[in-house]
Specification:
Layout (H helix, E strand, L loop, with lengths): L11 H18 L13 E6 L5 H12 L3 E6 L11 H11 L3 E6 L4 H7 L6 E7 L5 H19 L12 E5 L6 H12 L3 E5 L15 E3 L2 H5 L5 E4 L15 H8 L3 H9 L9 E3 L12 H4 L6 H20 L9
Parallel strand pairs: 1-2, 1-3, 3-4, 5-6, 5-8, 6-7, 8-9
Helix pairs in contact: 1-5, 1-11, 2-11, 5-6, 5-11
Length: 328
C-alpha cells in the first residue's frame, strides 16, 4: 500500500489486511510498554488545515508507538496564512525529512491531488478531505464492528469480514466524509448498509451508492440493525437551512430516549443487542440523547481507542510497503 486516499481503493483483501494488522497492533497497545521499533528513523508529518482533536492526536499516538518522529503542522500560524501554496508547503516538509504526510484539508480531493501530483515521494494518508472521504475513520469503525462480531460468534477476529451485519447510518449524509467512506468499506466487507436521512441531507447521486436509502428512521430501526451510526450535524458546513429547526430534526432523525429504549430492547441481525456508534464529537440533545451517549452499548470511546491501532497499521503498511512481508 503506497497511499491511503479512499476506501474505494481497498478491495476485500486489502481491507482485511489492514484490519488484521490493526489486531496485531492492538495487542501491542495492551502491553505495559506500548512501543514497536517498526518506524524507527522515519518521520511522520501531521499536516492539518482543519481543526481536529481525535484524528490528529490518534495519528500522533500511532506514529510514536511505532517509534517514528512526529511533526505536527497546523495551517494556522504557518506560512500558509501568508499565501504559501500546498505544493511549496509539502515540498518544504519533505526537505525537512517527511517520509509520510497525514493530511486533513478543507478541499475534497486534496489528498489525491497531493499523492498523484509528483510533488513529493512521501506516502500520503487522507485524514479527511472536505466532504469527500475519511478512510481511517471507516477502517476503525469496521474494526470495532468486527471485534463485536467475533465476540458474539466466539471466534478469532483475524480474517473475519462483516458478512451478515446490518448497519444503519443516520443523519447528515450530505456533508459527511465519514458516511461516504463507511458505505464503500462496509459494502466491501459484506455488510448491508441502510442510510436514513431527510432528503435535504442526502447528496446528489446517492442512488449509485451500494446502500439502501430511507427517509424514515423508525422504519430503519425496525429492521433489526446490528449497529446504528449517528452522524454529527455539521452546522459549520451548512450555508442555509437544511431542516426547519433543531427540535424538528431531533424529533424525526435523532436517537431520542424513546428510540434508544426500543433499540436497546431489540435484537440485531447477528448481534444480540445493537450497537450505537458515533464518529464524534457528539451533539448531545440534537442527534443523540444522553441515555444513548452514556450507554455501555455506545462504542464512541471504543472507536477512539481502536483508531490508534488502525492508524498504526496504516502507517506501518504504507511506510514498509517495499519491505519483505508486512508483519510488525
Amino acid at each position: 500500500m503506497r497511499h491511503l486516499l479512499s476506501t474505494l481503493d481497498l478491495d476485500r483483501i486489502d481491507a482485511l489486511s489492514v484490519l488484521d494488522t490493526a489486531g496485531q497492533m492492538a495487542a501491542v497497545n495492551g502491553r505495559e510498554v506500548k512501543k514497536l521499533p517498526a518506524l524507527r528513523g522515519r518521520t511522520v508529518v501531521n499536516l492539518f488545515f482543519e481543526d481536529s482533536t481525535r484524528t490528529r492526536i490518534s495519528f500522533e499516538a500511532a506514529a510514536k508507538r511505532l517509534s517514528a518522529d512526529v511533526i505536527n503542522f497546523s495551517a494556522k500560524g504557518s506560512s500558509v496564512s501568508k499565501g504559501e501554496s500546498l505544493k511549496d508547503t509539502v515540498q518544504t516538509l519533505e526537505a525537512i525529512g517527511a517520509d509520510a504526510i497525514v493530511m486533513r484539508h478543507w478541499s475534497s480531493g486534496a489528498a489525491q491531488q497531493l499523492a498523484e501530483s509528483g510533488w513529493i515521494k512521501a506516502g500520503v494518508v487522507n485524514a479527511g478531505d472536505g466532504t469527500h472521504e475519511h478512510p481511517t475513520q471507516a477502517l476503525l469503525d469496521a474494526y470495532t464492528l468486527r471485534e463485536h462480531l467475533a465476540k458474539e460468534r466466539g471466534v478469532p477476529a483475524a480474517g473475519l469480514d462483516l458478512t451478515g451485519m446490518r448497519v444503519v447510518i443516520v443523519g447528515d449524509i450530505l456533508h459527511s466524509r465519514v458516511a461516504r467512506s463507511n458505505v464503500w468499506l462496509l459494502d466491501t466487507l459484506g455488510a448491508e448498509v441502510i442510510v436514513a436521512a431527510p432528503p435535504t441531507l442526502l447528496p446528489v447521486g446517492i442512488e449509485a451508492w451500494p446502500c439502501r436509502v430511507t427517509y424514515a428512521l423508525d422504519e430503519a430501526l425496525a429492521e433489526g440493525p446490528d449497529a446504528v451510526m449517528m452522524l454529527r450535524v455539521q452546522v459549520e458546513r451548512m450555508g442555509g437551512a437544511f431542516f426547519p429547526s433543531a427540535g424538528e430534526y431531533t424529533r424525526s432523525w435523532g436517537l431520542t430516549a424513546d428510540r434508544f429504549a426500543r433499540l436497546n430492547a431489540a435484537s440485531g441481525r447477528v448481534l444480540g443487542t445493537p450497537l450505537v456508534m458515533h464518529p464524534g464529537p457528539m451533539n448531545r440533545g440534537l442527534e443523540i440523547c444522553d441515555a444513548a451517549a452514556d450507554s455501555p452499548r455506545n462504542t464512541a470511546l471504543e472507536q477512539v481507542a481502536n483508531g490508534v491501532s488502525v492508524r498504526m497499521a496504516v502507517l506501518h503498511l504504507i511506510l514498509n510497503h517495499d519491505a519483505e512481508g508486512t508483519q510488525p
